[in-house]
C-alpha cells in the first residue's frame, strides 16, 4: 500500500531523498517528465503543451524530525546524543519514544531523568528539549561517534498499521497522505497542463513550495495536506478544527492564507454535487504550502484540500481511511470540473 510505504519512509525536513525516490518510482513512465530542482522539490509534468489553465497540485514530502547537534563526551552522559527539533514538535510527546538516526537508521530511544529522581517542581511542567537526549546504547562517546555524527537527522520509528473502524496509525501522515493523493492524481488524464510538485522543507517555513510555484507559474494551485484534527474528549465544538471521519477539509483562513472565496465555494459545491462528504477547517492556527504558493508572481488562485490528522506532529498519528479516500474523490472531481469549465479565472 502506497500510504504505508510513504508513511514509513525516512524524510525529515531537509532529508527528503527516500520519499522522493519512492514517488519517482511510482510515477516513472506514468507522467511525461520529472525533474528535481536545486532545493530538492520533485516536479512531475503531464501535458505541458496542452491548452487551458496550468494547474499545479502540491504536497510536501518532509516530516517533523530531530537533528543531532552533540555527542556527549565524558562523565555519565558519554555516548548520549543531544538534539534539536526539525519543525514544530511538542517536547511533551518525546520521552521514551524510539527513533531512527542517520543514513544507517541507527535505532535509539529518547530519554530523560526518571520521574523518581525529579524534584517536585520538575514534575509540574514538561521536560524541556535541552534536558532530553537520545540513547543509542553506546558505551562511550567513541562508540557513538563510530555510527552517528552531528548533523544526522532522526525520525520516529513508527510502523504503519490499520486498526479499529477504517482507521490507520503511523508517522508523518502530515504530509505523506497528501503525497499519496498527489501520486494518484498525476495518473489522471485531463485536457490541460497538470503539474505535481512534491515539495521540501514545508515544516520550517513552506520553503520548497515557493520555489516550485516560481518555476511552474500556475494559473490554479491546490495544496494537498494533512491538517489538525482535535475532536476528542474535552474539545469544545468551536475548537474542533476538523472532525475525524467527516470528510476532507477546506480552509477559510489559516496563519498564511485567507481563502479565495470563489475557489473555496467552487470546491465545496463540487463536493456536494458529487455526494462527497466535506467540512470546513474551523481554526486559524497552522498553515500549508498554499500560503507560500498564492503569493508568487502576480498571485495565484486556488486553495487546499486537507485530510484530518489526529495527534499531528506526534510520533504516532491517526487518519480515517474514509477521509483519505474522499479527499481523493474530491480532488478528481475538482480536476474534472475545471476541465468542464465549471471554474473560470
From TrEMBL:
Keywords: Aminopeptidase, Hydrolase, Metal-binding, Protease. Binds 2 divalent metal cations per subunit. The active site is at residue 202. Pfam families: Peptidase_M42. Its cofactor is a divalent metal cation. One of its GO terms (molecular function) is aminopeptidase activity. It comes from the Bacteria. Zn(2+) 2 binds at residues 174, 203, 313. Zn(2+) 1 binds at residues 60, 174, 225. GO terms for biological process: proteolysis. Belongs to the peptidase M42 family. This is Endoglucanase.
